[in-house]
Write a structure and sequence with these properties.
This protein has about 140 residues and is an all-alpha fold. About 80% of the residues lie in helices and about 0% in strands.
Amino acid sequence: MATAGPNTSTSSAEERAVEERIERLQKQVQTGRGYERLLKTNLAALDAEPSTTDMRAKVIALELEKEELADRLRRLRAGEVKSLSSAEREALEARLAEWKWKAQRRKRIFWDMLAMAQEGLAEVKTKEQLWEELGLEKVDGE
């Protein structure tokens, strides 16, 4: 006949102690995970901000741009820049209009030729395959 001896009470006390320790450790793990999430959020916020090196490079670039603009302004104020006469301006505007017209015509020819190529190759290649093969990028007007 087995009787409840000192080993039984000791083992149940040990079991309770182990269970309590497990609960404490689980709480510590939960706390640690919460802290980890907080640190990851802080790290992501820090990564989103530009570094000091990047900021210094931007400041230097802006200072150079400022110097260039100041020099241009100085030359404009000093009258070193040649002004265009109205005849020269009109000639330039006429050339600009001519080249705009040529560019529009070329764009239309391109789209027409591309449409014909797509029609002719519709059974062999998809539109995306043709664009990829020709090295074209998606643009407005597609």
